[in-house]
Design a protein that fits this description.
The protein contains no helices and eleven strands. Strands 2, 4, 5, 6, 9, 10 and 11 form a seven-stranded mixed beta sheet that branches. It has a four-stranded antiparallel beta sheet with strand order 1-3-8-7, with no helix packed on it. β7 and β8 form a beta hairpin.
Length: 122
């Protein structure tokens, strides 16, 4: 089991910055992948950025060179630094943890946080 608690969302003007945090209930070194997703009403949840246990990162094209995912292993926390924010970044942001082949039948298991809302005004 992994509990994830996000924080750091809020209202910001276009061009501004926010830093989201995701605190995990266990060592993030025991988690294969951690990531940030976002969702707006009527749309499916989409990947924003992810980081593997080995430190490899992956970003959606729309946020490359603006957002950075990193982590603090000692604090069991993953961060999403968001710069040059745009109104199109407005969404609820969710933290995700994935454990490969951790299910009873060998399937991957995912955990989600409750989400934190980011609103970017023009």
């Amino acid at each position: 089991q992994v509990q994830l608690v996000e924080s750091g969302g809020g209202l910001v003007q276009a061009g501004g910055s926010l830093r989201l945090s995701c605190a995990a209930s266990r060592s993030i070194l025991s988690i294969d992948d951690m990531g940030w997703y976002r969702q707006v009403p009527g749309n499916r949840r989409e990947l924003v950025a992810a980081i593997t246990r080995g430190g490899n990162t992956n970003y959606a094209d729309s946020v490359k060179d603006r957002f950075t995912i990193d982590r603090d292993n000692a604090k069991n926390t993953v961060y999403l630094q968001m710069n040059s924010l745009r109104p199109g970044d407005t969404a609820v942001y969710y933290c995700n943890a994935r454990l490969y082949r951790a299910g009873i039948l060998g399937e991957d298991v995912e955990y989600w946080g409750q989400g934190t809302r980011v609103t970017v005004s023009s």
